[in-house]
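Take our chain:
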Amino acid sequence: MNDVLYVNGPVQNGPFTIAERPGKAAGIRAAEALNTLLDVGPVPHLWNTVTLAGDLRHRDAPDRDTVGRQEREERAIAAKYAPGAAPAGGVLTDTSPVVAVLALEMTERLLLEGVLAVTPTAVHLCICCGHMTGAVAHACRACGHQGSRPRTRRLLVWDRSPDTPVLARDDFHAHRARPPGHLLTIAQNVPERLILSRTRDHGISLAPLGLDGLVLDPRVGVHIAVLAAAARSNAGQPVMTVTENAAANVAAYGALFRRHNGTRLRYALHGRIPYDDTTALQRLCEVHRVSPAQRHLFLTWFLPLCSLHIRAGITAAQLPALLKFWRRAHLTRPDTPGSDDLAELRRHVAAGDMRWVMDVRTLSHAIPENPPTHGFTKEPEGAT
């Protein structure tokens, strides 16, 4: 069994392309770069398709009677990539058959163990469309109607005791790097009863558990998709590359779904990359004699890796210094890195120690010979 495998936190399949929003691919690109350094084979790109926004797009589509929701999601994902290109490891969504099978297996086990329960729960339903708005009355996000009615219905729930943590420091894969304290606090500030079933048009159906018309909460599904990707690669320690905001949103709902048959999922936090504020980069590249190939690697390889080290987010003001540093590392890249140097680099990568990214000598040994494209367009549009 492989040890560490980096997998991107599933990206929401919204109406955009990676060329338009290159930051959306930061987790994908970082994971692929780290896996390459670990000499791991191609890993699928993960996409989150169980979204209310996706439901609404499908309902409003003029071709909804001829194009099914699953096909619409597949088309939207394919459009993210450059024409004729696709990721070497393929794509995996949070509704793929292998994910659905694993989700039901894990959920049924937790039900048998008494950790989860299907129990009557008081919630509010929209009086117009019947969408479950939650435990507290508020406007319906599905149709916009302001009115809701209380109703008790059978739902999949996790009733945790107040002292049961939903997120701990060892849920993060990082050598000597402390997760933000406020992130741990946010994750803990969730209700003692978490509802794990939702009303969605698309998702992993809970009908086999007697919950007709309900699907598994997508915040659970994104974790199971990572576990499914790890199982495909026979990896025991999958690491989900994820932003701090995303981790705060999903961690509590994944607390029971980060372990399965000896596999342990952890998070690797990465910060935002200012792709929308790199207009001065072309002039900097000219001044420092950075070639187009080096510029491409800087944007699509180095910055995603750097975002795992600068987890608070890279700022536009930092780009000139980072570009100079990158150029120095590229100029000192050896023709053939030594085996000892590569072994040491891999130890850092496997441990989640990203400090090596800011060490010129170590970085020079990591730089790939050929610029990767990851199935996307050659260069972020925001970087032109």
Q: What stands out?
A: The chain has a mean pLDDT of 91. The longest helix spans residues 292-309. The longest strand covers residues 148-159. The radius of gyration is 22 Å.
